[in-house]
Protein: RNase H type-1 domain-containing protein
Amino acid sequence: MVEIKPWKLSFDGSKTDRGVGAGIVLISPKGELLQFSFQLDENRIMSNNQAEYEALIIGLEIAKELNIRHLNVIGDSQLVIRQVMGEYKCNHPLLELQLHKVKILMSYFDDIQLEHVYRLENGEANEMAQIASGVKIPDGQNEKLIRVQKRFLPFSIERDRGDLEIMEINLIDD
Structure:
């Protein structure tokens, strides 16, 4: 029998004063990384727990769209993970609806495992959720592209001191 290696799905939700976001990270068995950041409707998501559930739902929907059949899911929301696993009772009507949606999505997968982890172990999904909850997308737009780059230039104060050597100056006359 051939062992099928599962994909890994990390999810995180974030509700702040600035907005609500969901972060999803999928890692293929070969180590390929897919990262997603979604801004959620702050008028519909009233709690961080709802944001966590929504992130899990979105992650499962993406995995389903990618035809992933074997999945290990990790999240840092102990409440969400334990409710989905049946270890905690869900008494909140809105969370019950989200829990039901999660169970429907989980039935699609041939093998799915859930695990609660500490926030430090869920850093990439947390970063994606924080980005989405902190960025304002103008009305009438559905996305905002953000480019993040590393900067390898000397520290700006060092550049301004004039310590950089000039090797050659060429004047070009027009």
